[in-house]
Amino acid sequence: MLWIYYAMLKTNVLLLITINSFGIVIETVYIVFFLFYAPKKARMESLKLIILLIFVGFGLIVVLTQFLASGATRGVIVGWICLVFSLCVFVAPLGVLRQVIKTKSVEYMPILLSVALTLSAVMWFFYGLLLGDFNIAIPNTLGFTFGIIQMILYFIYKNNKPITNEKTGVMITEIGDQKIPELKDQKAIDVAKLNAFLQAEILPVVAKQAQKFDHNAAIPEPQADLRRMPNHTIDVGA
């Protein structure tokens, strides 16, 4: 929506209007599906965020730039705002890169998406460069960079296949001969923490005490019964 507003303030940027109009339709479909299937709590939080960012945030930008700026200054201000938000969009995949490096698995980073991101960033970079519009060109340099990094990581970790433990349902990433669990469920995380605590703290102490008992404990000998009946001698007359 910001890019459409920016395009309306500029000239010869019809492509910005068409592509971002299509993007609004696709994103609206995504949001509708999410709100339909999301839990009630997540749905309410998402609706609050949508109202805050789209209606309040975008509305304030339009109102303030219309009344407090004029002419070319208005386009410059909106362009800088678009540039900042575009940089935030391209920085968002850093979480995916961190997940890939941590798990050494590209399960959540499909190669086609990375290629599309890179090609799109390259095309928009040259489009902005030819128009002399650096608000379009600069953010896409970051998109191109992250796209290249994603493809490099994909080819590094593409042979590491994640498997699922049938008993626990925990995702396990195979790296050579080693198997590293990828904990997603909080219950699985709690079980893993408890298991690690038992192995590190409790089991060594129990084993040490058991070993000490085996070496030092003596088997008690049976003691005679102290409560014996007294000996009574009965004299029998001849």
Automatic annotation (TrEMBL):
It is a multi-pass membrane protein. Keywords: Cell membrane, Membrane, Repeat, Sugar transport, Transmembrane, Transmembrane helix, Transport. It is found in: Cell membrane. One of its GO terms (cellular component) is plasma membrane. Pfam families: MtN3_slv. The chain crosses the membrane at residues 12-37, 49-69, 75-97, 109-130, 136-157. InterPro entries: SWEET, SWEET_rpt. The keyword Transport applies. GO terms for molecular function: sugar transmembrane transporter activity. Mediates both low-affinity uptake and efflux of sugar across the membrane. Belongs to the SWEET sugar transporter family. This is Bidirectional sugar transporter SWEET.
